[in-house]
Specification:
- The chain has helices spanning 5-14, 21-42, 73-76, and strands spanning 80-81, 84-85.
- The protein is mainly α.
- Strands 1-2 form a two-stranded antiparallel sheet.
Length: 99
């Protein structure tokens, strides 16, 4: 699938971006490459595991892990209760209009 110059300019217009001709040509090429790659991904089997063609490639197990924080939320949150953030109700900040 290829992206045309008109597609690039329309996307830029919708995103309210200024794109000159040199940038449009590069974006056209890059977007076409991205869509070609997505087409290749769509050709992969969707049921069952995918066999790795190279036996010398060792993949790590995909195990979710939380990113460590520099400081726990309690150190920088204005107020916490039971591990949750406590926030004021609408209108309690002094500027709200309670109509």
């Amino acid at each position: 699938m290829s992206v045309t110059r008109a597609d690039v300019l329309k996307i830029a217009q919708l995103a309210e971006l200024h794109v000159d001709e040199a940038a449009a040509a590069e974006l056209e090429r890059q977007l076409t490459r991205i869509l070609d790659y997505v087409e290749q991904l769509n050709e992969l089997p969707k049921d069952g595991p995918v066999e790795i063609p190279r036996p010398d490639v060792i993949l790590r197990r995909d195990e979710p892990d939380a990113d460590p924080l520099a400081a726990p939320p309690a150190a920088w949150a204005p107020a916490m209760k039971g591990g949750l953030f406590v926030v004021p109700r609408l209108g309690e900040l002094g500027g709200g209009d309670e109509s």
